[in-house]
Design goal:
The strands form two sheets. The chain has a four-stranded mixed sheet with strand order 1-2-4-3. The two termini are 25 Å apart. By secondary structure, the chain is of the alpha/beta class. 41% of the residues lie in helices and 20% in strands. It has two domains: 70 residues, no CATH class; 103 residues, Zincin-like, CATH 3.30.2010.10. The structure holds zinc ion (ZN). Zinc ion (ZN) binds next to loops.
């Protein structure tokens, strides 16, 4: 939705009128500022709203810029490094799934994914893991690998699936909570 670009005390922001109840101010990942307001709110009222929150906006913009710099400084680890970490964990998990996999360990693949930590391809007997998973705590890495293996038995996230995960990792919830996004 294209909004109107406005300026308040040197700060540029995008004003978007929407069917919302409250005024909502946010700083996007690219550092731009957007304000969505209910239809009835005037542009002057939106300007005043932003002006009142200038301190917050400055802080949020700084935070976004810092996060962007950090990502640049720190490219994802190489696929070889990732496999060196993931393979031994996979080899430990594999024996319990040898039956369902027909005695053939799954193919491990690493990709620079950002939206998911892992993907299981049942037909191709392949597990794809995000390279950034290598930066997560080991307990969480183990959880993701066990999770993907369990998909060889249960394709969906049904009760039976989680029961199987729990059989291997009784503390899977705590491990999953360690996964940090971003
Ligand atoms: Zn899953």
């Amino acid at each position: 939705m294209a909004g109107q670009i406005r300026r308040v005390a040197g700060l540029e922001y995008e004003l978007v009128r929407k069917k919302v109840k409250n005024l909502n101010l946010r700083v996007r990942r690219d550092g731009t500022v957007a304000v969505s307001v209910p239809m009835r709110v005037s542009a002057d009222q939106a300007d005043a709203f932003v002006a009142q929150r200038m301190g917050w906006v400055i802080g949020a913009k700084q935070q976004v810029a810092r996060a962007a710099r950090k990502q640049q400084d720190c490219p994802p680890p190489s696929k070889e490094e990732c496999l060196a970490l993931f393979e031994p964990i996979s080899q430990k998990v594999y024996p319990a799934f040898a039956g369902v996999l027909g005695g053939q360990p799954p193919q491990l693949q690493v990709r620079d994914m950002t939206s998911r930590w892992g993907v299981c391809n049942m037909e191709k007997k392949r597990i794809t893991l995000a390279s950034r998973l290598a930066l997560q705590p080991r307990a969480a890495v183990e959880y993701v690998i066990v999770h993907e293996y369990c998909h060889f038995v249960h394709p969906n996230h049904q009760k039976e699936f989680w029961a199987l995960v729990e059989q291997f990792l009784p503390d899977w919830k705590a491990r999953r909570a360690m996964l940090r996004h971003g």
